[in-house]
């Protein structure tokens, strides 16, 4: 029986494990094993909603073990540490700190990405990253603790009109923009939960971008419209601002004054984990991604596939596919078909990324573009765009759980959203 190991349970890895389990695991044609350092999955594009209390991670989590039981794959919780291509073995450290060696016939690496600080001094020491669910929860606690301490200053009449909670976000991509747009609402919700002196006027939020505009993946007109929406929320959008270092009091740009901040968040740039760089002699890019052929097999070993953010998949236009959930989903489908083709001795398919557009959520509205067949482009905004944005997540859930269970998840999330904001922000000293 073929042993297929998938490392990483993100958008691509979990979809692949589910599909292979339904096809091969169910009929005992292959043993499918998913490995992840966490015990549960949450869609990464929604981490900013976990950080701001909009999304209840306890409701929307998908536990790998339960998913595996229902879809005929095994789950092992552990951290990937080594690869031996000659022996076709991987090494992991499980959640009990035991070292395990696991054999494979086909290996799929889908471990995602981390934030890229580009070696900027002080960023690792002073900034909060938004790489996974645990980081999002830590950010939420940091924000709430800051709000609480600021309330104490107000209650004791120790604040002045100039005093504000200063939050600076480096990175004008989707994550930074969506996080910034949720912060004013988070403060208003905090104020509605017994902290009636708290309001969004007490926030001083800045989005800092090194290039000449935010959201480079979107048309310039759409990005400009989103910039105006942010500014109406009281958010400062600072473009052409290159950060040279971070210190405890804020960010230091190449030109201009220090951007003072009480909370510093870094969402600029992504890279694959450092340990992937040339692991086991595999070819890697400057951002540590593993170079793959059009079939998504690594350039130096056909028994190893790479999908998602950690894959460097060059396209016909001369650019690599973007590190997005959209690309990971498309890679998972091609990888699934190619693994089936290998087992059936059929020709393999090539991965061609199709850009279906980008929608940016802005709390109670959204803006972006939708592309038809990756070509004709249509701008969308308002409630219609927000529905599309929400639908993308529910489609991801449906691909994993089935449509009826995904509908139940959506209903549960709606109920919990109405009650959880109070529980998050109340009972704070």
Key terms for this structure?
alpha/beta; FAD/NAD(P)-binding domain; 3 domains; 8-stranded mixed beta sheet; 35% helix; globular
Secondary structure: number of strands: 25
Query: What is the radius of gyration?
Result: 22 Å
| Separation of the first and last Cα atoms | 58 Å
Helix content: 25-40%
Residue share in β-strands: 25-35%
Query: Which secondary-structure class do the elements indicate?
Result: alpha/beta
Cross-sheet strand order for the largest sheet: 7-6-5-2-1-8-21-20
User: Biggest sheet, open or closed, and with what strands and sense?
Assistant: 8 strands, mixed
Protein model, in words:
With 429 residues, this protein is α/β, with parallel strands linked by helices. It has 3 domains: 184 residues, FAD/NAD(P)-binding domain; 146 residues, FAD/NAD(P)-binding domain (3-Layer(bba) Sandwich); 54 residues, no CATH class. It is built from 11 helices and 25 strands. The strands form 7 sheets. Strands 7-6-5-2-1-8-21-20 form an 8-stranded mixed β-sheet. A 5-stranded parallel β-sheet has the order 10-17-11-12-13. It has a 3-stranded antiparallel β-sheet with strand order 14-15-16. Its cofactor is FAD. One of its GO terms (molecular function) is NAD(P)H dehydrogenase (quinone) activity. Keywords: FAD, Flavoprotein, Oxidoreductase.
């Amino acid at each position: 029986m073929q042993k297929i190991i998938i490392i990483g349970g993100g958008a691509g890895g979990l979809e692949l494990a589910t599909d292979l389990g339904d096809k091969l695991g169910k009929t005992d044609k292959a043993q499918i094993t998913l490995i992840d350092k966490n015990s549960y999955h949450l869609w990464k594009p929604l981490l900013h909603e976990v950080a701001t209390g909009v999304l209840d991670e306890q409701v929307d989590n998908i536990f790998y073990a339960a998913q595996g039981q229902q879809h005929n794959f095994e789950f092992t919780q552990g951290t990937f540490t080594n690869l031996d291509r000659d022996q076709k073995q991987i090494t992991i450290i499980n959640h009990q700190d035991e070292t395990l060696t696991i054999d494979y016939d086909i290996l799929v690496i889908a471990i995602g990405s981390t934030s890229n600080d580009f070696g900027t001094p002080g960023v690792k020491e002073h900034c909060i990253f938004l790489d996974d669910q645990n980081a999002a929860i830590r950010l939420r606690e940091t924000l709430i603790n800051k709000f609480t301490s600021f309330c104490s200053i107000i209650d004791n009449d120790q604040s002045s009109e100039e005093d504000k909670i200063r939050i600076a976000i480096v990175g004008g991509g989707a994550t930074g923009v969506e996080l910034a747009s949720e912060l004013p609402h988070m403060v208003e919700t905090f104020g509605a939960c017994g902290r009636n002196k708290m309001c969004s006027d007490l926030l001083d939020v800045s989005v800092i971008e090194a290039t000449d505009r935010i959201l480079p993946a979107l048309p310039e007109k759409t990005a400009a419209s989103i910039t105006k929406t942010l500014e109406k929320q009281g958010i400062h959008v600072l473009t052409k601002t290159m950060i040279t270092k971070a210190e405890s009091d804020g960010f230091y740009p190449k030109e201009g004054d220090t951007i003072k901040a009480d909370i510093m968040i870094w969402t600029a740039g992504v890279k694959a984990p450092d340990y992937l760089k040339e692991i086991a002699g595999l070819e890697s890019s400057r951002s540590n991604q593993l170079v793959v052929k059009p079939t998504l097999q690594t350039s130096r070993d056909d028994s190893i596939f790479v999908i998602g953010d950690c894959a460097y998949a060059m396209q016909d236009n001369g650019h690599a596919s973007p590190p997005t959930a959209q690309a990971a989903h498309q890679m998972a489908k091609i990888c699934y078909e190619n693994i089936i083709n290998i087992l059936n001795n059929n020709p393999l398919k090539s991965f061609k990324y199709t850009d279906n557009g980008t929608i940016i959520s802005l709390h109670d509205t959204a803006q972006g573009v939708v592309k038809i067949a990756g070509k004709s482009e249509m701008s969308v905004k308002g409630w219609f765009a927000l529905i599309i944005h929400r639908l993308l997540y529910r489609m991801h859930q449906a691909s994993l759980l089935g449509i009826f269970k995904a509908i139940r998840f959506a209903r549960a999330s709606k109920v919990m959203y109405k009650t959880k904001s109070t529980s998050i922000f109340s009972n704070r000293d």
